[in-house]
Amino acid sequence: MQHMEARFDMARSTRRLAVLLAVAALVVAACGGTTTTPSASSGGGESAAPTTAATEAAAGVVEIRWFCCLGGGDAPEQVEVEQAVAEAFNAAHPNIHLTFEAVPYEGARDALATMIASGNGPDIVGPVGIGGAEAFHGQWLDLQPLIDSTGYDMSQFPESTVSLYSVGGQGQGGIPFAVYPSVLFYQKDLFEEAGLNEPPHDWGGKYTMPNGSEVDWDYDTVREIAKLLTVDRNGKDATQDGFDPDAIVQWGFEPQRDDLRQTGAYWKAGTLVADDGTAAQIPDAWVAAWKWFYDGMWTDHYSMTGPVFESPEANPSDYPFFTGNVAMSQNYLWSTYGVGDSGEDWDMAATPSYQGQTTAAFNADTFRIHKDTKHPTEAFEALTYLLGDGSADLLNTYGGMPARPTEQDAFFEAQAANFPQEIDWSVAREGVNYADVPNFESYMPAYNESLDLLITFGTKWQATAGLNLDTEIEDLRTQLQAIWDSQ
Questions:
Q1: Residue 290 above 70 pLDDT?
Q2: 9-179+364-414 has which fold?
C-alpha cells in the first residue's frame, strides 16, 4: 500500500486482470450519474442492478460512493471482502447506502481524476497512502469539524500517526487506519558467520563491535558492519585487500528503493518545500543520506548498483533481501509478504540513527472524504464504520498493522503464525513512535511531475558511477524550482 501505491505492482499484476472487466462500466456509470455496486468478487461476475440517486432519494436513503483502488484493494479476494463490508454497513444503516466501486490500480488515478473533473467525484476514497492522496492535493475534506461535532475519539491513536494527516495546510485530512513502520530486516546467520553481534532491537540503542566496545547504532556504524558483511565469490569481504566488487555474492545493506525523498527520510524527516511554500530546498540530512547511499553502491560496494539490482540473478523477485544474500535491509512492515522466502533466520532490528536522532520512514493507508461530497455527515458515518466495525476484515485482507494499539496484539499473533521462528515484533510496534513527520510523501507543488523528476535522478545515480553528487543535487533542486515556477 504506498504508501503502497507501487509496492506490490509485480506481485499483483497477474491478479488484476480479473478486475479489469468491471472498470469501463464502472467509470461510465459514475460519470453518468448512476452508481453500480460490483459483485462480490468484482471479477467478471454479474453486477447488482444500478441504483439511481433519484430512487435512493425517494426511499429516504442517502447514496455514498466508496472508490477504490489508488493503493491496494484491487485483488479479487480483497474486492470480495470490501464488498462484504459495504453490505454489512448497509444492513446496519438503512438510511445510508454505501456503494463500492473497484477500479484496478493501473487505471484508478485517471478514473478518479475524470470523475472529479466531471463534477461527479465519489464521497469516500481508499485505501490510499499519503502519496496517492497528495496526487490529489486540495481535494480532501477537513475532517476536524466532523470529528468535533460527533465526538469521535482521536486519543485512541498515537499522536505520531494522527499528525501524519494534519500537515500541508489542509486540516485533518484523514484518521489513522493501517500503518507500516520501517524496520531493519537482517539475516542472523550471516551475522553469526561473520563473527558479528546482531543489530540492536531497541530504538536508539547501542551496537557492540567485535572488540567489545559499544558504539551508537548509526549510519557510520552500519557502513563498517555492512562492509564486513559484503563478500565476493572468493570469500573476501569489502574491507580486505583483493576484494572484487565485480564478483559480489553477498551484500551488506540494501535500502527500500523508492524515490529520493524516502532515502532521505530514513535519516531525518524533512520536506523539499521551503517554509514559503514555493521555494525548492534540499534538507541537509537528505544530502548526507543520498551521498551515503551513492558511496555505498559505487565506493564501498555494500549496496547493489542499479544494474545489479535490476538483474534477475541478484534480484529475482521484488527485493534482494528475499534471496537470503543480503545481510541487512531497510524496508516497511508490509514486506513481510516476501521475507519468508529468505529462510528462517531473519529478524527485525531498529533502524540506524543520524546525529543522535532515529527516524522510521513511514507508510500509512486510510480512507478520505472528497471535499465536494454532498453528504459529509453520512460520508463520515460510513468512513468511521470502515475505520471501526469494518476495520478487522479490511486490515486482514490488506495485511495492515492496525493504527489502534489495542488491536495490535491480535495482529502480531496472526503474523507470528505465518513464520516458524520467533520474531521480535515489538520492534515494528515501537517504530510507530519514530514516524517521519512531515511524511516524505507529503505535499509538494506539481506533485506528479516533481515525483517523475525525483525518480529520474534516483535512477541515474543508481546506474552511473563517478558523479559529483553536489552538482547533481543542485541540478535537481534547480529543475524542481523550474517545474514549480511554471505552475
A1: yes
A2: D-Maltodextrin-Binding Protein; domain 2 (3.40.190)
User: Rounded to whole angstroms, how far apart are CA atoms 302 and 221?
Assistant: 13
Q: What are phi and psi of 329, to 5 degrees?
A: -145, 125
What pLDDT is stored for residue 481 in this prediction? 98
**Amino acid sitting at position 173:** G
Q: Are strands 248-254 and 231-232 parallel, antiparallel or unpaired?
A: antiparallel
Q: Which residue has the cell 454497513?
A: 89
- Which part of the chain is CATH 3.40.190.10? 9-179+364-414, 182-361+446-485
Q: pLDDT category, 59, cuts 50, 70, 90?
A: low
CA-based torsion, 361, 418, 81, 382: positive or negative? negative
Per-residue cell: 450: 516533481
pLDDT the model gives residue 1: 41
Q: Using the 8-state DSSP alphabet, how is residue 347 labeled?
A: E
Q: Which pLDDT score, from 0 to 100, does residue 56 have?
A: 52
Closest of 184, 246, 186, 170 to residue 218, by C-alpha: 184
3-state secondary structure of 348: strand
Quote the pTM value: 0.82
- Residue 416 contacts by C-beta under 8 Å, 6 or more apart in sequence? 423, 425
- What CATH number does domain 182-361+446-485 carry, 3.10.50.40, 3.40.47.10, 1.20.1510.10, 3.40.190.10? 3.40.190.10
For residues 148-153, average pLDDT: 98
